[in-house]
TrEMBL record:
EC number: 2.7.11.1
Protein name: non-specific serine/threonine protein kinase
GO biological process, one term: regulation of mRNA processing
Organism: Oidiodendron maius (strain Zn)
Enzyme class, first EC level, given as a word: transferase
Key word Nucleotide-binding present: yes
Region described as Disordered: spans on this chain: 66-87
Catalytic reaction annotation: L-seryl-[protein] + ATP = O-phospho-L-seryl-[protein] + ADP + H(+); L-threonyl-[protein] + ATP = O-phospho-L-threonyl-[protein] + ADP + H(+)
Length: 194
């Protein structure tokens, strides 16, 4: 191989991202890499983040880009297989949980709460600040099952946004940071209990 790609290709021989977590176990994470197609639909582009219980990947929805059509090999959503799936954006963020029973239970709980929130009061001003999964599926990995939650991709965090624009005057409405939590507090009373 020659050309610009050959010169920029290199192997990383030291721990990166989640590999630096104390007690890191590679068997718990789904072995994902850029260009991999998940659930016959989502092609990973780059890792956006990671944590003790998951990694998050930017991916292209190949169904929306017209590259692929739905097939019978797609794993149905965990939630309700009879519900019509909402229209997905071309690019998505996929949270791939680890294969531990705690991560699986947490992902199932997150999905259940998100479904409740998604059907709550959509006219509340804070509803737009709460992200709910737009799809979900399971992946069978070499060491267990991984629950995947698909989200609309977000922009940078408010902290990163403010830091990157520290030279610009920025005035946020006083209610902006509290709109989402206020919305959630109103939903708490009618939240499903597990």
């Amino acid at each position: 191989m020659s050309g610009p790609m050959a010169e920029s290709t290199c192997m990383i021989h030291e721990p990166i991202d989640e590999e630096r977590i104390v007690n890191y176990n590679p068997n718990l994470y789904f072995p994902t890499h850029p260009g991999q197609v998940l659930n016959a639909r989502y092609q990973t582009i780059t890792k956006l983040g990671w944590g003790f219980g998951s990694t998050v990947w930017l991916a292209e929805d190949l169904w929306q880009s017209g590259t692929r059509q739905p097939s019978s090999s797609v794993t149905p959503s965990i939630a309700n297989e009879h519900e019509e799936e909402p229209k997905s954006p071309r690019y998505v963020a996929i949270k791939i949980g680890t294969s531990t029973s705690g991560s699986i239970a947490a992902a199932e709980h997150e999905l259940k709460l998100s479904q409740h929130i998604a059907t709550a009061n959509p006219s509340h001003p804070g509803a737009g600040y709460i992200r709910c999964p737009i799809n979900n599926f399971q992946l069978g990995g070499p060491h267990g099952t991984h629950i995947c939650l698909v989200y609309n991709p977000m922009r940078e965090t408010l902290d990163d946004f403010l830091w990157s624009r520290s030279q610009l005057p920025l005035r946020l409405p006083a209610e902006y940071p509290l709109s989402g939590p206020h919305f959630l507090s109103l939903q708490e009373a009618s939240s499903p209990r597990t």
